[in-house]
Design brief:
mainly alpha, 3 helices, 160 residues, 0% strand, single chain, rod-shaped
Length: 160
Amino acid sequence: MKKQEKHLRDERNEFFSKLVSLEGKNKDLIQELEKVQSELQFKQSEITHIQNVSSAELDCLRQEMLNVRAEQNKMQEQHNVLLQENEQLSKVIKTKNESLACDLVHDRRPTSEQLRESMEEKENELNKYQVKPELLQMDLEDREGSVENYSTQVIQWRLL
């Protein structure tokens, strides 16, 4: 029984470690998002200072700004979804831990097959959460490229 309890504690600690890691990634994404938002605000202020740009060029700038804002909103939505999924994972882990603890208290030990299946389910859930930050990172990198391109265009237009 002690061996099983140790195994359950180790498993719970592993899940909590992974959860903490995901929360750290979320924090990094939030910081990156704030950085990109700050850059966007700076670029928006540059747009307001450009007076000698033709209306066609201004329309292009406005469209680019709308695209960047749409991308920013999309990233914010993805971040919110990731936070919600994190909360759901925490609830699932808590529920499963309570269920396992209750089984141990009533001396209803889960079979090794049940434990293996439970472990596989948890591993699959964690894998889903680990892929999402990677996708968000790729979106951030694409967005940074758009911001750099936009910045280059603004500088070129100023030189005209």
